[in-house]
What does this fold into?
Amino acid sequence: MLLPLAAESIRARSLRGHLALEALRAGSGNGHLLSELIHILYVAWYLREAGFGAADAALFAQAEQALECSAARASAEDVWRLDDTDVPVLEQLLTLHDDQLRLAPVSAMREVHKRLARFAQSDRPTPWPRFDKP
It folds into this structure.
C-alpha cells in the first residue's frame, strides 16, 4: 500500500490520457475519450489535495472549462474535438497527472477513488473553487 503503482499501470493510465487528448485534438474523439480526461481532471485534483504535485487551482478550472466547451460542441455539432487554444492547459494537466502517478502510493490512489465516488454522489459542481474567469 505504501509503494507506488506498478510501472505498467502508470504507463497504461498515462497513455489513455495522452491518447484521449490527441484524438480530441484531431477531431476524432468521442464521449468515452472526453470522459477519460474528465476522470483525470478529478483524480489529479484529489491527488494534489493529498500533497502529490503542485498546481494552481486555476489550472483545474481552466481544464474544466476546456472540457465543457468540447462537450457543448459535441452536443451542438456532433464533433468531438478540442479548440487549439484549449490544448495547452490539458497538456499541463496530463503532465501534472503523470508526475502524480509516479509519486503517489497505492494507498493514496485508493483514497482518491473513494473521494471521487463520494463527490459523484454529492450536489457540488466541482471539488475546486469556482472562478469567474479562469
User: Anything to note?
Assistant: The chain has five helices and no strands. Residues 18 and 94 are 7 Å apart (CA to CA).
